[in-house]
């Protein structure tokens, strides 16, 4: 658990990539409006939506950033840029969720407390549960789905992967790697790509109590699951052979200061 608040919490800005998800986005923004600690800013990235997503975002006071390049990698990157390269980015935390997420009232507070309690922490992530079904089923399916994700990708990355529906990072961390990630490949999982470019040594944490609600679109059909598996393999292949798992594990446990490689 994060430590009790003994110091001022850092400011947290929220990035939400969105394409044609106006109704789900409204529920997400409603949950952000009910936070015990309000976000410093909400940035909704309109990824060329044909519906009223941008209007919904503005109605809730969000800043809308337009990104015409299709795909979550481009949209998420545009949102991170809008926050990390702004005038007030020093010591800022960038939180990220998806438009179909419903966030608990302490989501912002818990993120801020994690970074306050862990000054060396660069990236934070948490799990989710599926809503729109019996609670036991939502927990079970999400546990299986995310358990497989964290286990498989953690093995490939030599550390916990980022989960894009529920994550946060320091603005300075994004500034360091923003030119390295694959923004223009819509078939990549942006969170796995980000995890690769974080490298195996940056301080990342999985907070199992930082839980968000998620729409079950990823597991509703075999086609949805198949698409996600194909994108996972595509993302892995796009970073190999330079980032083969055994190379990352060797790098992670190589003594600091070892000049090899």
TrEMBL record:
Protein localization: Cell membrane
Chain ranges of the Glycosyltransferase 2-like domain: 13-142
Cytoplasm among keywords: no
InterPro entries for this protein: Glyco_trans_2-like, Nucleotide-diphossugar_trans
Keywords: Cell membrane, Glycosyltransferase, Membrane, Transferase, Transmembrane, Transmembrane helix
Molecular-function GO terms, alphabetical: glycosyltransferase activity
Annotated metabolic or biological route of this protein: Carotenoid biosynthesis; staphyloxanthin biosynthesis; staphyloxanthin from farnesyl diphosphate: step 4/5
Transmembrane annotation, as ranges: 140-160
Main localization, broad class: membrane
Domain of life: Bacteria
CDD domains listed in its UniProt record: Glyco_tranf_GTA_type
GO CC annotations, alphabetized: plasma membrane
Role: Catalyzes the glycosylation of 4,4'-diaponeurosporenoate, i.e. the esterification of glucose at the C1'' position with the carboxyl group of 4,4'-diaponeurosporenic acid, to form glycosyl-4,4'-diaponeurosporenoate. This is a step in the biosynthesis of staphyloxanthin, an orange pigment present in most staphylococci strains.
Family recorded in the similarity comment: Belongs to the glycosyltransferase 2 family. CrtQ subfamily.
Protein name: 4,4'-diaponeurosporenoate glycosyltransferase
Species name: Arthrobacter zhangbolii
């Amino acid at each position: 658990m994060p430590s009790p608040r003994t110091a001022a919490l850092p400011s947290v800005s929220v990035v939400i990539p969105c394409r044609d998800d106006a109704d789900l986005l409204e529920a997400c923004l409603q949950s952000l409006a009910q936070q015990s600690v309000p976000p410093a800013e909400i940035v909704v990235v309109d990824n060329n939506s044909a519906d009223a997503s941008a209007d919904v975002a503005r109605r809730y006071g969000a800043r809308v950033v337009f990104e015409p390049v299709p795909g979550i990698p481009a949209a998420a990157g545009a949102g991170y840029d809008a926050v990390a390269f702004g005038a007030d980015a020093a010591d800022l935390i960038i939180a990220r969720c998806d438009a179909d997420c419903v966030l608990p009232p302490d989501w912002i507070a818990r993120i801020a407390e994690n970074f306050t309690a862990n000054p060396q922490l660069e990236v934070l992530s948490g799990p989710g549960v599926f809503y729109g079904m019996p609670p036991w089923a939502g927990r079970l399916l999400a546990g299986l789905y995310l358990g497989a994700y964290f286990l498989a990708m953690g093995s490939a990355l030599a550390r916990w992967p980022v989960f894009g529906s529920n994550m946060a990072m320091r603005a300075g961390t994004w500034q360091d790697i923003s030119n390295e990630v694959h923004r223009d490949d819509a078939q990549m999982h942006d969170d796995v790509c980000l995890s690769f470019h974080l490298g195996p040594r940056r301080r990342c944490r999985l907070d199992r109590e930082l839980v968000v609600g998620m729409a079950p679109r990823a597991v509703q059909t075999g086609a949805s699951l198949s698409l996600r598996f194909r994108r996972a393999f595509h993302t892995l292949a796009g970073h190999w052979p330079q980032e083969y798992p055994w190379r990352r594990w060797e790098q992670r446990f190589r003594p600091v200061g070892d000049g090899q490689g």
